[in-house]
Design a protein that fits this description.
It is a single chain. By secondary structure, this protein is mainly alpha-helical. It has a domain at 27-87. The chain has four helices and no strands. The longest helix is centred in the middle third of the chain and has 23 residues, at 28-50. Pfam families: BofA. This is Pro-sigmaK processing inhibitor BofA. Keywords: Membrane, Transmembrane, Transmembrane helix.
Length: 88
């Protein structure tokens, strides 16, 4: 089972690299993606540190940072709402 998962991972990486170089995207998109990740982490840290949402604590992990980097500020609001409604 691990061999199948590793094979799928390797195939995915090879195909992703092929798409990047075929479309000639260059490396500029990587900087944009990295800046989105950093801004998402900073935004979550600000919400946790300043306690803008009360005593709600949102952990900094790949799932929360990914959500905020894709959705932006509405992603932070969504995470705060989910934390309040699911965990009181």
């Amino acid at each position: 089972m691990k061999a199948i998962a590793a094979g799928i991972l390797i195939l995915s990486v090879v195909l992703l690299v092929a798409v990047v170089f075929k479309k000639r995207l260059g490396w500029g998109w990587l900087g944009l993606f990295g800046s989105h990740l950093i801004l998402a982490a900073v935004g979550l840290y600000i919400v946790d540190f300043t306690q803008l949402a009360g005593t709600v604590y949102i952990p900094l992990n790949p799932a929360t940072i990914g959500t905020v980097s894709v959705l932006g500020l509405p992603g932070v609001v969504m995470l705060v709402g989910l934390k309040i409604t699911l965990f009181g």
